[in-house]
Amino acid sequence: MSETQAYEKPQPVIDPGTKPFWDAAREHRLSIPRCRSCGKHHFYPRELCPHCHSDDIEWTDASGKGEIYSYTIARKPAGPVFASDVPYVIAMIALDEGPRMLTNIIAKDVEQVRIGDRVTVRFDDVTPELTLPKFTLDKD
């Protein structure tokens, strides 16, 4: 993105509970919460473990690898700012660490995307303050 071009797409609200995730993304790291009590990772970030309800949570770097659990191809934009992106893939990724994460798949050919495909995180620096984790197909 050029420095003179503004990022016009909706941006996430970064609050104290999600700030570690977004800070890590800016550093091109995929960091997710892990419960110290039961040892399980979870996503989306929250103050209590969804598995055992402990509040003993830490942030850990994930491998950035996973597989497509489910997906759809958007052929009509979700608003004018997405018009240049169609067709694009919205997918639920099952991270190797266990949790699922909603994201975009960046693919050479969206028609080749399949459930079960292996993917790797890629970071899209959309503004100096915001980096979005997206995924690419390992077979691309």
Give a structural overview.
- With 140 residues, the protein is mostly beta strands.
- The protein has one domain (19-137): OB fold (Dihydrolipoamide Acetyltransferase, E2P) (Beta Barrel), CATH 2.40.50.
- Helices cover 6% and strands 36% of the residues.
- The chain has one helix and seven strands.
- A five-stranded mixed β-barrel has the order 3-4-5-7-6. Strands 1-2 form a two-stranded antiparallel sheet.
- The longest helix has 8 residues, at 19-26.
- It is globular and about 45 Å long.
- The two termini are 23 Å apart.
- 19% of the residues are buried.
- The model has no long low-confidence stretch (mean pLDDT 95).
Q: List segments where confidence is low: pLDDT < 50 over at least 5 consecutive residues.
A: none
Shape summary: globular
Structural class category: mainly beta
Number of domains: 1
Q: What series of H and E elements makes up the topology?
A: HEEEEEEE
The biggest sheet amounts to: 5 strands, mixed, barrel
Tell me, rounded to a whole number, the average pLDDT. Answer: 95
- Radius of gyration from the CA trace? 16 Å
Helical content class: under 10%
Beta content comes to: 35-45%
CATH class: Mainly Beta
Number of strands: 7
The CATH topology is OB fold (Dihydrolipoamide Acetyltransferase, E2P)
Strand order of the largest sheet: 3-4-5-7-6
Number of helices: 1
Please give the alpha-carbon distance between the first and last residues.
23 Å
CATH architecture: Beta Barrel
